[in-house]
Amino acid sequence: MPAKSKAQQKAAGAALSAKRGETPKGELRGASKEMAESMTEAQLEELASTKRKGKPEHVKK
């Protein structure tokens, strides 16, 4: 499942970093905190590796 916006891709990258132990989980906020708790490392990797070119900054629900 590719990221739909730049913000989603960035949040997935932050969550992936925390999941791998590169950054403290206490530094996560909002969407990235929820992603780290509810998604696997493979799912986060897929979202974080999405290309940002042509993506909107945010997507409204």
Keywords:
61 residues; mainly alpha; 3 helices
Explain the layout of strands and helices:
Blueprint: H1 6-19, H2 30-38, H3 41-48
Arithmetic mean of pLDDT:
90
- Rg estimate, integer Å: 11 Å
- Taking the alpha carbons of the first and last residues, their distance comes to 17 Å
Q: Helices and strands: which structural class? A: mainly alpha
Which percent bin holds the helix content? Answer: 40-55%
Strand content: under 5%
Report the strand count.
0
Sequence of secondary-structure elements: HHH
Largest sheet: none
Q: How would the global form be characterised?
A: globular
Q: Count helical runs.
A: 3
Residue ranges: pLDDT <50 for 5 or more in a row? Answer: none
Quick gist of this model?
The protein is mainly α.
Structure description:
The protein is mainly α. 51% of the residues lie in helices and 0% in strands. The protein is built from 3 helices and no strands. α1 (6-19) runs antiparallel to α3 (41-48). The protein is globular and about 30 Å long. The mean pLDDT is 90.
